[in-house]
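To close the chapter, one final illustration. This time we ask the reader to focus less on the individual chains and more on the assembly as a whole: which components sit near each other, and how the overall shape emerges from the parts.
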Amino acid sequence: MKNYLYVFVIFCSSIIYAQDCNSILIGEIVDFHDNSTLSGATINVTGKNLSTVSKENGKFTFKNLCDGVLELEISHPECTTKFITVTINGDTFSEIRLEHHLEELKEVKVIGDIPKNTNSGQENILSVKDIERNSGNSLGDALKKIAGVSTLNTGGNIVKPVIQGLNGSRILILNNNVRMQDMEWGEEHAPNVDVNANQNISVIKGAAAIEYGGDAIGGVIVLEPLPVVRTDSLFGKTQLNLSSNGRGGNLTSSLTKSYKSGLYIKAQGSYKKLGDLEAPDYILSNTGINETGLSLNIGKRDFEQGWEGYYSYFNSEIGILRASHIGNVDDLINAINSDVPGIINDFTYDITQPHQEVTHHLGKLSYYRRFEGFGKWTTQYDFQQNRRFEYDIRVGDDSDKASLDLKLTTHSILTNLKFDAKEGFDLKVGALGRFQSNFANPDTGVRRLIPDYDKYDFGLFAIGSYELNSDWTLDAGARYDFSRIDSKKFYRTSRWEERGYDVDFADIIIEDLGTQLLVNPIFDYHNFSGTAGFHYEINDKDHLRFNYAYSQRAPNPSELFSDGLHHSAARIELGDLRIKSETSSKLSASLERNTSTWGYSFAPFLNSIQNFILVEPTGVEFTIRGAFPLWSYRQTDAVLLGLDASLYNNWSSKIRSDHKFAWVRGTDTETDTPLINIPAANFTNSITYTNPKWNNFLVSLESQFVFEQTRYPDNIEVFSPEQQENVILDINTPPDAYHLLSLNTEASFTLKNKNDLTVGLSASNLLNTNYRDYLNRQRYFVDDMGRNISMRLIFNY
Amino acid sequence: MKTSTTMKRNKTLKTVLALSLMATVITSCSSDDDTPEVVNEEEIITTMTVTLTSAAGTATLQSQDLDGDGPNKPVITADNLTANTTYTGSIVLLNETETPAEDITEEVAEESDEHQFFFGLTGSLTEVTYADSDGNGNPVGIEFELTTGDAGSGAITITLRHEPKKPNDGTTADAGGETDIAQTFPVIVE
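The assembled structure is written out below.
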């Protein structure tokens, strides 16, 4: 090929003379990756009315050019537009390499629901519109739009995403390619991310994307910034949301400056303040929130190399329902039996005890470099620090002191090489190193719930995808993760013996303080994961995907070490040092159809988990304060079987209806009993009317029906000191089914630029229905949130 | 031209490598072998001692749970009481995980408007009256009087509530608040 070109150039120069404005430029356009020629590219000479299209062999020609410098704009439907300068000195030949793969520069719009993290796995993308509508909510609330995603709540503001029945450490959250390390192990620990910071959000159900971690038995949530367009521009977006429930709102704003050179800088900030939330019949006292998020991206994305620096700060102060802070099992029995909470105060913006305050810092540096005809190398360092204070109701001098004060610091280094030179075959190999240190401040005066520990992780992975032909794509991957946790923890001697650790772990005691023992557990985990699947494009409308994922997850510090009374939950939580890694084998399939008139997705899954780690009420323990429910971690074998289905139909160009159904059934196969905290089936239907002629007017009505969870573990029998007898503690019984309506309407207007202002008005729980949700930990005490009318203004500039 | 780009690339590459190296150094250095400081619970009440005094003599009821929220149950002891007698009662709360033991009764007395003891009686125990009050004239219950009936068995349940509704009708159900102590003493009245 090259030889042929030289011949061509020589041939041209032999017939044309220089300096006469009759020079000829001959160019050849080739793919950067595999050196194949690209036809159909448009080439414009900037500032001159000259234009041509590259031929079958990738070549183009301009005649009658003057000597000097020319700027060419080369565009191709499948490539990023590229500007280059060429010095014309007599007859000139220029080889132009175009980025034929879009993923890096992302100048072309990202198309709808096309998965990009996995070919064969179940993956959904949240639209920017959906994120805008949830700008005032949490990440979990926004993700609920996706069939199969539900939430585990502690009130209205602490919202953890649940994917196909699994939550917590089984869900990995990637914030701008940094795996969040924010104490995700706690049920009342919400992800420390601002939903407004990253507007490109996708959910991978299950462990199919093992590049990000082998332990994502539940799934992966990928948060990325919207791609920055590579031109000289300055643009921004500001959104204001006001909501009636909580009597507050949030303001979020971002400003992006980009340059043609690929350099960009983006700053974003959000502030949110809500006072006490309200149930239909009463105020949910002490449920306010203050939240601040800031982020800054600076980087340069070029064709061959690029770098990025990213920093984000997130701080939230969240009130915990006052009435949920209770003394002992009798208080809990009374709360469960009572229709109204024990404490209802007047509305206030003040947040008092109990509450939590969490700060998360995240910094990242990344660099990539492409190698011609070979692939791309990426490396990244990231740093995170998560500081969590939990304040309980305490007496005397300690009343303003935190009961829990944890500082979690994490450093990670990632590197990977992607080989994509061969058309239709991509291979990526990578490695990860991570160090994490947790410090539990003893100044709280409360025994540590989570001890001091150091954790070391090391991972290696390889993933590949292969296009068998235009219809079939295969993907597969394998990963190995080593992790070591080295902790120093104090145990009460009585607890140590009661757990039988004096027999099994006698050798790890390093100090005996009489009533307490200092021990040094060091545990190593070797985990393997693997995935394989296919994507079959039946035709341009119908797709079939099938994936098998094998994944292992090491126990988190909470599962190993929890030991103590959790006041805000009125329960004693006990981890177990004997807990091993859990292993999941998940089969998932999806059949999808997408046409302009209608479409559906039908996605069943079967997840069989060996040594599944769960926490559930197992009894009571007596203290001078009375009896407390004991929640113990244990391991068993479990099977989760489920189905996510969705359907849409465009009845006309203006009317569309959407239907979604999700169901999951979780069983402890060792005891043949239902698993705890499995979301109830839910069915959502909505109808939307849009009319682009009326300022893009949109109105939609949504009905959400949540079934009663009929499968739950048995309640426990406890001795009630108050009643002086054994009573059934109704701690597992799920609440009734409920139905909620919500309404959303929006329109856009033109101030300076076309449609630069969007105004929206929505109402959730439109009928102010009283309901309680099984996966809300405050369901024992109060009804869920009542009607919320919110207004949003979105201004693009 | 070409050389300068290559040099530039090399420079960037070096920077990245340097950063990665730095990160590795940070990572390997921050491991420390500090021994964490032991935490002795400050607010825990391990022991409630009720002293009942009458002309007939002194009786003691005690609940002691030295491992606090640990797995061991409180140890409850109760002396026998004399029938048809009025006792003067007083309550002492201690945190015996500290040495010397911390007297928690003082804290309760200081915040008496936020605390109240409640007494539940069954069997041969007939009446309790409060013998103290907080700054607002509402009962506290650190000091009280207990009257016994005829010989037989009975039980007294003593509950300390933090932030109860005050005043209240004397029952825990009406008072609300959070339970700091709830212990039942079976007693024999002879």
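The helical segments of chain B are 2-29, 105-110, 172-175. Chain B touches chain A through 61 residues (CB under 8 Å). With these observations in hand, you are ready for the problems at the end of the chapter.
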